[in-house]
């Protein structure tokens, strides 16, 4: 009987012409040699004939005997004909053929389930052949089906491209319809699943008994493995939750081959799986699932497949088959994914094979090293029990052994923090954070891990720094010590328990000593007996002097508590150190956005846990509200929301009950008050802007400030004592500060969301504490009984912001004077009524206030009056008239005597001038705001048709946009000019002659310092309003800015001149040098303010810097750090505006500064910074040439040293080197006369030479010139003689050494027992 042997391919079964077909194996007979052969070529047949042939195959396979396929040669040849031509038969026929073969194989498998070695040999032989034949045929069908499945999408794409190209003929449509029909009739995924299920059932058969006494045919097992591998390598065939059953069939095949037939198939299966893992990305998680299935479900704990696969991976790496480079390959990434998946699925199994995986820590691929780090984290989380630490049992697999393994893994994780790759270091820190979140870090490792994180905050990679901050934050969030971590509390508690422990230990030692004396004491027997009768037992029946039963337990508990407190105290100090020494000074101001984002999050988290230094750090973080990075601002917004405004357990605050919302609002106010206490002026402004940012509401991001919080702010503003009644548990420092904070919050929120601020609460009477409305609250809070100046300022600020945010009812440009600004919230107490006018008037007339309080209050009141009143000119006219009438101008004799009346009159005059100047400035701002409002209104009124903005504006005004703009500008110009009219029509212009007279005659005679400051402010503000007044008084202001003895007056006038340069550039342009001269002022305050003002003017092209740039450059070496930083920012920003800006003026600065008395060390610092912007070759070469030529024009030592210093600071370029060596004659004399100058030129030469040599440009004539110049400079420095002497000594030493070596060699030749003697020079060397 013929036996079927598994071929490599079906074509091997074909008997060639002339070949003997009478062998014992089943083959396909050749039709030329065997006319009875049933094998036919279906490719040449018609579709009808192919269908008929397949139908005949199905009928033959429908026999009761499933082994009919190999029992009859005719059946075999008929079926193999259809199998070989599988791709060419109709789709329906394919489905029928696969169904028939799978059904027969399933029946055969059921038959073989009961086979045994004692069965008939011929029957077993037939069944073996049938099984191998079915497996071979189905493998061929799988191969062909997979080809069709991968080609079908490509054909569909080609058809789509054909349609796009325009080939829409009938033939193309017919082909598309045929293809669509084929795809609907031929369901290959279903057939593939059916085929794999039948093949998987074959692995359940007892093949050992079927093939007994011979071993199982390796070809059969290999063919089964190939079938499973075909599906594993095809992602759509096995990936996805819907294909879980199909994957189980594949896993069953692999598991059976690897475990049931491990002797022959374990290693080949592992190698094939390893190769698939290296080639296909989707295989990694599937392979982990296979290992889990093989170990837990199929093998019942047999882990040989996973172990062999890990060994195979390690063997490939050790053998060098993988590229031994740092480049990360796809195979390494897939292996990393596989190991991580296995560790998550089977942590204990991976832990038992950790010795195989540890060598991967030395692999060049950082992905593999990172994967092993992740594996170790999964092992710690899943392989080691939390009860191991409490157990004392030991053994190979006992808890103590597992504890030692865990300790080893933790030590390895600590080492990986210092990996050479940033990704691995970051992954290690992330693993530690995950372990911390799962509460798996032992208390003994807590501070060690914290130290590792603190050390990585200075890492060069931002990725690692980010992970380090996240790890520290996780350590704080999941700390086992306390919900808050102030170091002082832990230090106090630690000291108390340490003293208690010492006392307990001392008591225990004393008790033990007494007990020992009672037991071993000496004395007479009678005395001992008497004593024994007396002190044998105490009242509790215990022997006297014995230790309490629980004393050891109490001491142990106290020791554990002390150790825990020491760990907690050390941890708080570590976090505080990281916050104050790394995060605050470096990461919070980093140029990398991710550093800043994480630093803000870390500072917010530290503030939540009350870490030392956290409030100061978070106050600095408030300044980031002005950052250009949206991510930074969003991070600050989120942290601020989490700290003060979000619900404690998440969710929407407005969903909470009203009582909880109120308590949350009071807590937020308390937190904001604590944060604001200690803020600088800049930080307070940033805090206000943060609140405004939180109040802003858009379609994408709603407001963080909820209505109940705003209601509580109104309640506190109306009566700050309410906080002690409503929430006695929350500490508020004082009622005044609490009220001012509430008012400032309302003002900040009103800048971006006035509707939220003015939203009516449900309990209006309760919220406003009985007052009529919110305007009445502001009036009562700022100007009511007992109100302080600070309260008035805060209330006025709320009024100002609400009025600015309200809509304006404005007519056309012609009615600019009559424009009425009306507040949209028309309550009876709306600002502008008599009560508010009276309050404002009273505040401006309060003479008992100190100077600082009065000026600040007057500023706020005037801003509020001009923002909310319909006609503030009438109000200001009355105020100014009353204040002017109250002036008492002193006589000359009284002013010289310094009498009290003169001092009072000076104070009133100072306040009058301040109010006059600020009122004029507010009026000017009012004109600008009204003009903007008119433009905005005109632009917002559309004509109805979709035209551009110009057409819509023309539709509104009846003219074009240019005419409208001209009308607005003309009206604004007339309004500004009429503001200072002296004919009595202007409330401010009536006092202009008085101010001009004070400026020209009395500015130097005033002895009251605030009066001079007020006069300077008033004059500059009035000059901003009128160009005529500016031109008539500009010369006096300039002279006063030079001669004023007070730095405050000089600073005020300098800043005023800068503002005038923007307002009236033509008038101020001749006096620009006065501004630059103030950069050398003796006052640091003046220099800083002038530097900031000039920076703005220069960057806006309002003043010229050329010709005065040396004055600005001197500030780069100023004694004050803020002035230096401002100058550096100016030059850096100016260099960004154009590459030639700084490079064009660097030479002028270099030569101009040398004519001043600036020290050379400061000169070098200035030029070092400026020349860092000179980078282009043409700039460097040009400047080098011009610097060198300057040596010939000035032979002074100072100039020579400065020029040589600049030459040494220039970057290397070949043309610059040529310019240097070509002009040797220019600096030859300077180098010969001054060694320091020669040394700097030599430094420049060597620097340029090194750069040219690196670029390969140092050759030929240029090299000779460089050598000549270098020799000349060395000769000037006296270095040539020393080098020649050293060279001569070396040559002489070499000659002497050669002579002695020659003599020694001769001695050896004469007598071999003589050793050569080296010269002393050789011995010394």
UniProtKB/TrEMBL annotation:
Its main location: nucleus. Residues 522-539, 1280-1300 have a biased composition (Acidic residues). One of its GO terms (molecular function) is histone binding. GO terms for cellular component: condensed chromosome, centromeric region; condensin complex; nucleus. Gene3D superfamilies: Leucine-rich Repeat Variant. Keywords: Cell cycle, Cell division, Coiled coil, DNA condensation, Mitosis, Nucleus, Signal. It is found in: Nucleus. Residues 94-245 form the Condensin complex subunit 1 N-terminal domain. Residues 512-551, 1280-1325 are annotated as: Disordered. This is Condensin complex subunit 1.
């Amino acid at each position: 009987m013929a036996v079927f042997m598994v071929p490599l391919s079906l074509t091997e079964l074909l008997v060639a012409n002339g070949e003997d077909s009478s062998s014992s194996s089943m083959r396909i007979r050749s039709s030329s040699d065997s006319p009875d052969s049933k094998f036919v070529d279906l490719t040449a047949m018609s579709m009808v004939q192919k269908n008929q042939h397949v139908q005949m195959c199905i009928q033959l396979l429908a026999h009761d005997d499933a082994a009919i396929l190999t029992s009859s040669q005719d059946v075999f040849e008929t079926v193999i004909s259809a199998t070989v031509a599988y791709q060419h038969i109709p789709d329906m026929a394919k489905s029928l053929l696969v169904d028939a073969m799978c059904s027969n194989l399933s029946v055969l498998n059921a038959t073989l389930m009961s086979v045994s070695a004692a069965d008939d040999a011929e029957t077993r032989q037939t069944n073996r052949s049938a099984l191998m034949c079915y497996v071979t045929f189905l493998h061929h069908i799988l191969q062909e089906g997979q080809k069709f499945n991968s080609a079908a999408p490509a054909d569909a794409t080609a058809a789509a491209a054909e349609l796009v190209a325009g080939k829409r003929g009938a033939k193309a449509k017919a082909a598309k319809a045929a293809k669509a029909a084929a795809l609907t009739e031929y369901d290959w995924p279903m057939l593939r699943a059916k085929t794999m299920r039948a093949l998987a059932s074959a692995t359940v058969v007892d093949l050992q008994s079927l093939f007994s006494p011979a071993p199982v045919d390796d070809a059969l097992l290999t063919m089964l493995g190939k079938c499973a591998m075909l599906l594993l390598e095809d992602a759509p065939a096995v990936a996805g939750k819907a294909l879980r059953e199909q994957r189980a069939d594949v896993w069953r095949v692999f598991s059976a081959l690897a475990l049931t037939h491990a002797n022959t198939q374990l290693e080949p299966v592992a190698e094939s799986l390893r190769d698939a893992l290296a080639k296909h990305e989707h295989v990694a998680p599937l392979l982990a699932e296979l290992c889990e299935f093989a170990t837990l479900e199929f093998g019942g704990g047999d882990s040989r497949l996973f172990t062999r696969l890990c060994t195979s991976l390690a063997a490939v790496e050790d053998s060098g088959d993988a590229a031994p480079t740092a480049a990360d390959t796809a195979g390494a990434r897939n292996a990393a994914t596989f190991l991580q998946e296995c560790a998550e699925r089977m942590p204990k199994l991976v832990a038992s094979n950790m010795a195989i995986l540890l060598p991967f820590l030395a692999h060049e691929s950082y992905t593999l090293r990172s994967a092993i780090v992740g594996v170790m984290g999964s092992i710690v989380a899943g392989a080691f029990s939390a009860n191991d630490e409490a157990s004392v049992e030991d053994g190979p697999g006992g808890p103590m052994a597992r504890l030692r393994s865990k300790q080893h893994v933790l030590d390895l994780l600590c080492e990986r923090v210092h990996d050479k790759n940033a990704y691995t270091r970051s992954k290690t820190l992330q693993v530690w954070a995950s372990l911390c979140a799962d509460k798996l870090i032992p208390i003994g490792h807590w501070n060690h891990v914290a130290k590792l994180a603190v050390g990585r905050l200075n890492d060069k990679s931002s990725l690692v720094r980010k992970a380090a901050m996240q790890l520290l934050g996780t350590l704080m969030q999941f700390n086992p010590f306390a919900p808050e971590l102030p170091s002082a509390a832990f230090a106090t508690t630690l000291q108390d328990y340490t003293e208690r422990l010492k006392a307990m230990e001392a008591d225990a030692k004393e008790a033990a000593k007494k007990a020992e004396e009672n037991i071993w004491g000496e004395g007479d027997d009678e005395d001992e007996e008497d004593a024994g009768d007396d002190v044998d037992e105490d009242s509790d029946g215990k022997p006297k002097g014995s230790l309490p039963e629980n004393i050891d337990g109490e001491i142990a508990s106290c020791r554990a508590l002390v150790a825990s407190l020491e760990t907690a105290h050390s941890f708080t100090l570590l976090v505080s150190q990281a916050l104050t020494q790394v995060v605050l000074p470096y990461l919070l101001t980093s140029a990398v956005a991710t550093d800043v984002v994480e630093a803000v999050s870390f500072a917010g988290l530290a503030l939540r846990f009350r870490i030392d230094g956290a409030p100061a750090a978070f106050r600095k973080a408030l300044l980031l509200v002005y950052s250009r990075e949206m991510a930074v601002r969003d991070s600050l917004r989120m942290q601020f929301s989490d700290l003060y405004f979000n619900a404690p357990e998440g969710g929407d605050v407005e969903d909470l009950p009203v009582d909880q919302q109120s308590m949350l609002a009071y807590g937020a106010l308390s937190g904001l008050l604590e944060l604001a206490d200690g803020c600088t002026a800049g930080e307070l402004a940033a805090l206000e802007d943060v609140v405004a940012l939180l109040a802003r509401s858009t379609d994408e991001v709603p407001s963080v400030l909820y209505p109940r919080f705003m209601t509580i702010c109104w309640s506190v503003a109306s009566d700050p004592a309410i906080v002690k009644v409503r929430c006695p548990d929350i500490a508020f420092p004082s009622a005044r500060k609490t009220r001012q904070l509430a008012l400032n919050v309302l003002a900040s929120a009103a800048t971006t969301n006035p509707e939220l601020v003015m939203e009516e609460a449900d309990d209006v009477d309760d919220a406003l504490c009985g007052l009529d409305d919110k305007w009445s609250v502001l009036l009562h809070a700022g100007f009511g009984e007992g109100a302080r100046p600070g309260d008035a300022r805060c209330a006025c600020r709320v009024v100002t912001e609400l009025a600015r945010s309200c809509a304006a009812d404005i007519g056309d440009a012609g009615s600019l004077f009559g424009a009425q600004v009306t507040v949209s919230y028309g309550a009876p107490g709306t600002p502008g009524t008599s009560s508010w006018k009276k309050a404002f008037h009273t505040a401006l007339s309060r003479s008992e206030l100190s100077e600082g309080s009065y000026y600040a209050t007057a500023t706020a009141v005037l801003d509020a009056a001009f923002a909310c009143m319909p006609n503030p000119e009438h109000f200001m006219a009355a105020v100014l008239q009353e204040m002017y009438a109250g002036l008492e101008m002193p006589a000359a004799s009284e002013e010289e005597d310094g009498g009290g009346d003169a001092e009072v009159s000076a104070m009133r005059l100072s306040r009058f001038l301040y109010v006059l100047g600020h009122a004029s400035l507010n009026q000017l701002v009012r004109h600008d705001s009204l003009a903007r409002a008119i433009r905005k209104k005109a632009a917002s009124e559309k004509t109805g048709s979709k035209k551009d903005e110009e057409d819509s504006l023309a539709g509104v005004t009846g003219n074009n946009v240019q005419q409208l703009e001209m009308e607005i500008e003309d009206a604004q110009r007339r309004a500004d000019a009429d503001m200072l009219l002296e004919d009595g029509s202007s409330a401010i212009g009536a006092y202009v002659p008085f101010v001009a007279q004070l400026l020209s005659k009395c500015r130097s005679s005033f002895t009251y310092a605030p009066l001079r400051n007020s006069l300077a402010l008033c004059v500059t503000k009035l000059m901003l309003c009128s160009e005529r007044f500016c031109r008539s008084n500009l010369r006096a202001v300039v002279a006063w800015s030079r001669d004023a003895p007070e730095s405050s007056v000089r600073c005020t006038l300098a800043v005023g001149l800068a503002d005038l340069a923007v307002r009236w550039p033509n008038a101020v342009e001749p006096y620009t040098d006065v501004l630059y001269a103030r950069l050398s002022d003796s006052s640091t305050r003046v220099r800083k303010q002038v530097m900031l003002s000039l920076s703005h003017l220069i960057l806006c092209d309002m003043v010229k810097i050329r010709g005065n740039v040396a004055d600005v450059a001197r500030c780069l070496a100023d004694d004050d750090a803020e002035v230096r930083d401002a100058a550096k920012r100016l030059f850096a920003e100016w260099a960004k505006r154009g590459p030639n800006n700084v490079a064009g003026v660097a030479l002028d600065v270099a030569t101009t500064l040398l004519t001043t008395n600036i020290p050379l060390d400061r000169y070098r610092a200035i030029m070092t910074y400026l020349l860092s912007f000179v980078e282009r070759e043409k700039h460097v070469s040009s400047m080098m040439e011009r610097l060198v030529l300057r040596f010939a024009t000035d032979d002074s030592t100072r100039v020579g040293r400065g020029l040589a210093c600049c030459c040494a600071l220039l970057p290397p370029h070949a043309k610059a080197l040529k310019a240097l060596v070509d002009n040797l004659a220019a600096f030859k004399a300077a180098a010969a006369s001054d060694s320091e100058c020669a040394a700097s030129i030599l430094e420049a030469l060597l620097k340029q030479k090194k750069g040219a040599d690196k670029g390969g440009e140092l050759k030929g004539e240029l090299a000779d010139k460089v050598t000549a110049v270098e020799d000349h400079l060395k000769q000037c420095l006296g270095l040539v003689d020393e080098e020649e002497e050293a060279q001569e000594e070396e040559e002489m030493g070499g000659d002497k050494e050669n002579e002695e070596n020659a003599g020694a060699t001769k001695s050896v030749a004469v007598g071999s027992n003589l050793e050569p003697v080296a010269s002393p020079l050789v011995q010394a060397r």
